[in-house]
Amino acid sequence: MRLFFPLLVTGILLNFCAASAETSNLTGTTLCVDDESFTADIGSLGSTSSSVAQSLYDYFVASAKAQGIPFEEMGATTCEEYPLTLNFGATTGTPRAWSGELNIWDLSAYASPNTKNNYTEAVSIWRSASYGVLASNDGLAVYLINEGKTIINSFLKDYKSAN
Closest Cα to residue 140, out of 59, 57, 58, 49? Predict the structure, then answer.
């Protein structure tokens, strides 16, 4: 019994630490969205692309505000610290392959510590993606918006657990 209790406590602590490690990069970050944060390129469907991007932006803003998650709306000014990007793309025609990805970028960290390296891509501190193939265009915008909402909800849950 004397050995069981310390092992139980250690197991619980290790489990908690492992679970929080997935979101620990989000701790203390202030999210930022600008005019380039939400994009969609749905084949040759310009109005569908605009509808998907704007709907997901509106959903993110409303959901984050409702949950009390702080974020900066920069408009035409580019985010300087932790920009959030949500991008959807799809092929032309049917069947239509599509993908969506949400990233939080740390613009102060880069993939290579070598300052002489030409690699200038910021480090993604949180990422989630979804992809698939649709047999037709029927309900395409609604389907992609729902997929985007699922990704946003997952992110907001992780963000709240880290902060």
Answer: 49
